[in-house]
Specification:
It contains two helices and six strands, in the order E-E-H-E-E-E-H-E. It is α+β, with helices and mostly antiparallel strands. The protein has a single domain (3-88), classed as Phosphorylase Kinase, domain 1 (2-Layer Sandwich), CATH 3.30.200. It has a three-stranded mixed sheet with strand order 1-2-6, with no helix packed on it. Strands 3-4-5 form a three-stranded antiparallel sheet. A hairpin with a 5-residue loop joins strand 4 and strand 5 (50-56). The longest helix has 16 residues, at 61-76. It starts with a strand and ends with a strand.
């Protein structure tokens, strides 16, 4: 079971959990072209929960800071047109 994140919501996933769920980030798991600074993959956890996983192309400097802001913003917002954020991995 993933650990609860330090943000107080969601789960802290390991990179291994996300890689395993998305078939090692294989090309056939891509469900979205480059979105912002990353690629979106379809993942399926062991309990058959389907998830979208955004993998940053550059996780250093400005890109990482912007990603953290995005995670915090999306995690706190609830809207019918926005998928629920289950957790993250940094």
């Amino acid at each position: 079971m993933p650990e609860v994140s330090h943000l107080g919501w969601g789960h802290w996933y390991t990179l291994r959990e996300l890689e395993d769920s998305a078939n090692g980030f294989a090309d056939e798991s891509v469900i979205g072209a480059r979105v912002g600074m990353g690629i979106v993959y379809l993942g399926v956890f062991e309990d058959n929960t389907q998830v979208a996983i955004k993998n940053l192309l550059n996780n250093r400097g400005q890109a990482e800071r912007e990603f953290k802001v995005e995670v915090e913003a999306v995690g706190c917002v609830g809207h019918k047109n926005l998928v629920r954020l289950l957790g993250y991995c940094t």
